[in-house]
Write a structure and sequence with these properties.
The structure is a single chain. By secondary structure, this protein is mostly helical. It has a domain of 92 residues. The longest helix is centred in the middle third of the chain and has 40 residues.
Length: 138
């Protein structure tokens, strides 16, 4: 029987201060990108970055609801994107490799039945560890 310890697991999330500082840097950088092209900076984004920086340093608890919303958005994104990405990887990478291996007659897992075989035991050369060394493994 497998124990389910997820209920006793306390999830460590990012602090509200770190959340505010990261977003202040992101808004600040995006606000300054036009300067690299010779255009004026995006003042609204710089103001938002300044407000976030001030709140993150002075009263980070004000950012807690936004931090929780951001984490919930990330969780939602995970639940939507993970199956899509895993499906794409499976059908773009694993399936073509499997089809090519079948086409060329490869059986790397030795799954084919052999009517002449008396046993499917694979003899190791060199032999594995001594049985005495395998006591009390856990």
């Amino acid at each position: 029987m497998v124990r389910n310890d997820t209920m006793s697991f306390s999830e460590k999330t990012s602090s509200d201060r770190a959340f505010g500082l990261v977003f202040a840097v992101i808004f600040g950088c995006v606000g300054l990108i036009p300067v690299l092209r010779g255009a004026p900076p995006r003042v609204l984004l710089l103001v938002i970055a300044g407000i976030l920086l001030t709140v993150a340093l002075a009263v980070p608890a004000l950012l807690h609801p936004f931090n929780r919303l951001w984490l919930a958005f990330g969780d939602l994104l995970h639940h939507v994107m993970n199956p899509i990405i895993m499906g794409v990887v499976f059908f773009v990478v694993i399936t073509p490799i499997s089809l090519l291996m079948r086409l060329f007659g490869k059986d790397t897992l030795r799954l084919r039945t052999d009517a002449k075989a008396t046993s499917y035991w694979i003899i190791r050369t060199p032999p594995g560890p001594e049985p005495e060394s395998c006591k009390n493994q856990f």
